[in-house]
Every structure is written in C-alpha cells, then in structure tokens.
Write a structure and sequence with these properties.
It is a single chain. By secondary structure, this protein is of the alpha/beta class. The chain is built from 5 helices and 10 strands. The protein has one domain: Rossmann fold (3-Layer(aba) Sandwich). Helix content is about 30%, strand content about 35%. The strands form 2 sheets. It has an 8-stranded mixed sheet, sandwiched between helices. A two-stranded antiparallel sheet has the order 1-2. α4 links the parallel β7 and β8. The chain is globular and about 50 Å long. It starts with a helix and ends with a strand. The mean pLDDT is about 95. The chain binds guanosine-5',3'-tetraphosphate (G4P) and sodium ion (2 copies). The site of one sodium ion has 4 residues, from β7. One of its GO terms (cellular component) is cytoplasm.
C-alpha cells in the first residue's frame, strides 16, 4: 500500500451506498503534509510533462490543487460552479451533472486564465463517474489548450469515470484506486498499481 492507501485504511470510513468518507484528512479537515506528499508523487508521475498550469474544480479539489501547484511552481485555476451563467463570451462553460447530488451545474472559467499555449494538469480529489472531469476537459479544449495529465487522489474504480477517461487516451494517475468496499465490515480493496 502507498501512503494515501494507508491513510484511507487508517482514517477513511466506508458508508452505505459506496461512499468513502475522508473528511478528517482530505476534503473537510485537510492534512496539508499529506497533500505535500501527494504533490511530490504527482510531480514524479508526470515528470516527463511540461506543465504550466493546474486546473481544478470547486470546492474540495482546491486545497489539493494548491499544494500540487506549489510543487510544480505554476499557478492554479479553479472552475466555478453556478446554477446559471450569464454567458457573455468572457467565460468557458461546461455542463456538469452530479450523480451524488442529483443536480446539474454549469462550471465556468474566465477566458483570461486559460490560453491555447497552456499545458494543463487537471487535479481533483475524487473520480467517480467522471462528469466533473469531462467538464474540465471540455473547458481546456474550448481554450485550445492541452491536457498534459490528470491527477486524482481517490478513484472509485467500480464506477465508470476512470475507464472512460483512460479510453479517451488521457494520462490519468490516481494515487488510490478503490476497487471495492464494504460498509458492514469496513473493508477497502485497492487496485494494484506500480
Ligand atoms: P463525478 O464528478 O466523478 O461524476 O462524481 P459524482 O457526480 O458521482 O460525485 C459528486 C460529488 O461527490 C463530487 O464532488 C465527488 O467528488 C463526490 N464524491 C463521489 N463519490 C464520493 C465518495 O465516495 N466520497 C466522497 N467523500 N465524495 C465523493 P462535488 O460535489 O462535485 O464537489 P465538492 O464541492 O464536494 O468538491
Ligand atoms: Na467532493
Ligand atoms: Na471534487
């Protein structure tokens, strides 16, 4: 097990409905020393990429993305969620459906902060169905920029997002991939990775 998998086993809580609670260290209270380790691991995994910008989505991706940006010495931009946007041409917009919350959001990034020459590393805390990620990929495409990589803290490997994104050819690195979990026993099975 790697450092993140170990932490998930120690402090993560498996809830009914295949929900993994990690709010004591990842997305409510945040262990920034752990985030630093994650940032260094992403730096290692994407060492062959020339990355000049980190892109994430509010809310819980922001903390991790900031530390990752610090490791890469590049700025970080977060996509904003809003129910309805006055589309005046100054922003890139993507529609993102949340299965967990059963709602649709528009996510926006100002055209000021993404340009065709940008080489982007997308960062997020969770990958489940991949809707948020597909929205971010769409925004990078609208800017004419390039997705150099995608770094995820926790991928739920039994949901479809990871498979879809990898099939599209994107370099996707998840620090922990949960292949199955059991709320009654608290058991978590991780996918073997190199
Ligand atoms: P998707 O973007 O991969 O399609 O995710 P989905 O709609 O299934 O999930 C909606 C939200 O729930 C996302 O956060 C996602 O990160 C989060 N999520 C999904 N599965 C889990 C889980 O097992 N545990 C935890 N803790 N979160 C999970 P969000 O609502 O879009 O953003 P945020 O404001 O929380 O950052
Ligand atoms: Na979340
Ligand atoms: Na998130």
């Amino acid at each position: 097990m790697n450092f993140l998998e170990e932490r998930i086993v120690k402090d993560g809580i498996v809830k009914e409905g295949n929900i993994l609670k990690v709010d004591s260290f990842l997305n409510h209270q945040m262990d920034v020393t752990l985030f630093q380790q994650m940032g260094e691991e992403f730096k290692r995994r994407f060492a062959d990429k020339e990355i000049n910008k980190i892109l994430t989505i509010e809310a819980s991706g922001i903390g991790i993305a900031c530390i990752v940006a610090s490791c890469f010495h590049v700025p970080v931009v977060f996509a904003k969620k809003s129910k309805s946007v006055n589309i005046d041409g100054a922003v890139y917009v993507a529609e993102v459906e949340s299965f967990t919350h059963k709602c649709k959001n528009q996510v926006i990034v100002s055209k000021k902060f993404l340009h065709p020459e940008d080489k982007v590393l997308i960062i997020d805390d969770f990958l489940a169905n991949g809707c948020a990620l597909q929205g971010l990929i769409s925004i990078v495409a609208q800017a004419g920029a390039t997705v150099e990589g995608i770094g995820i803290a926790v991928e739920k490997g039994f949901q479809q997002g990871g498979r879809i994104i990898r099939n599209l050819g994107y370099p996707l690195e998840s620090l922990a991939i949960v292949d199955s979990m059991d709320a009654s026993t608290g058991t978590i099975v991780f996918r073997e990775q190199n």
